[in-house]
Amino acid sequence: MDRSEKVKEKFEQKSGIIVKKDDWIVHSYHGVSHIEGLDRKMLDGKDKSFFKVKTDELTYWIPIGEMNVQHIRAISSVATLKKALTTIRQKPQKLENDYRSRRARINEILNKGSLHLKVELIRDLNARISTQRDNIYEEKVLDKLKGQFIDEWAIAFQCEHKEAVKKLEEALDTSVLKLAHNE
What is the value of pTM for the model shown? Predict the structure, then answer.
């Protein structure tokens, strides 16, 4: 077992997250990512081991020994994603009126990386934006979160993106109708 493999094994024992080449993960900032393999690089004069990770748009490296596991999770199961879609179909919750409070809450959810919190935010931001389009930042966050959810759904269900988009849009439409009908 070479040094990279030993560091990876130690990480897995410490974090409880087991990842290997060709696995899919969800990074709280970068979204759905594919682990291309292990890589070694010199950093600050030290030989370090990294996971080489790719998204559709970029390649990044995660230092194995210093991996921040609160920002990384495995792709959700089909059952978990179905529950997430059920959450999205529920009546939206009203977001704070104060922009600073709303933005702080959004940033907190983005940093935590929890699927449950993110789908609630998708539902609630979608409802807010459908009734008042006044914040470009919130629209961009919603687009990013929807894209991440769609990517994760497509991988878990092994389906086309357009099918995942349709499922999400139908759930969001259901949610907004509940707001309009005050259910």
Answer: 0.82
